[in-house]
Amino acid sequence: MREKILTFIEKNSRIDIKELAIILGEDELSVANELAAMEADHVICGYHTLINWDKTDIEKVTALIEVSVTPQRGQGFDKIAERIYNYPEVNAVYLISGSYDLLVTIEGRTLREAAQFVSDKLSPLESVLSTKTNFILKKYKDHGTIMAEKEKDERMLMTP
């Protein structure tokens, strides 16, 4: 039941417990108890809303920062990752494979604000060897949801 619950609420965290119980063929109390247990165990870490900021008049810039670091003896990447994720500007930190060690996502009001975070706070950290900042210009799909609208064909249909 746990995997089924997680699959459903990952796509729609606002689903009513009663409706979820019906879909799963379980009783409402069992589903509620399982959700509460997963929240207590930090399997479910939060409930979030996906917002298309391009549809608002609010300016937001998202940066994906690739970071190369020197792992610390006995602590690996965990200590530097903790230092980075404690900055309030940071939305996410991932340990990744490939050319870089960490992928850090931040949001700012402007490109300058995001770049300044990298130059003033991230790059000077003792274990950071290098950074590469990528700015998201447009989101086509995010968290499994298509964000880009198809352009409407405004041409008139001509028939012979």
UniProtKB/TrEMBL annotation:
Q: Which domain of life is it from?
A: Bacteria
Q: Which Gene3D superfamilies match?
A: 3.30.70.920, Winged helix-like DNA-binding domain superfamily/Winged helix DNA-binding domain (1.10.10.10)
Which residue intervals define the domain Transcription regulator AsnC/Lrp ligand binding in the entry? Answer: 65-138
Q: Name one GO biological process term.
A: response to amino acid
> Which molecular function terms from Gene Ontology are attached?
sequence-specific DNA binding
Pfam families cross-referenced by the UniProt entry: AsnC_trans_reg
Under the cellular component aspect of Gene Ontology, which terms does the record hold? cytosol
Q: What is this protein called?
A: Transcriptional regulator, AsnC family
Organism of this sequence: Eubacterium ramulus ATCC 29099
Which lineage? Bacteria, Bacillati, Bacillota, Clostridia, Eubacteriales
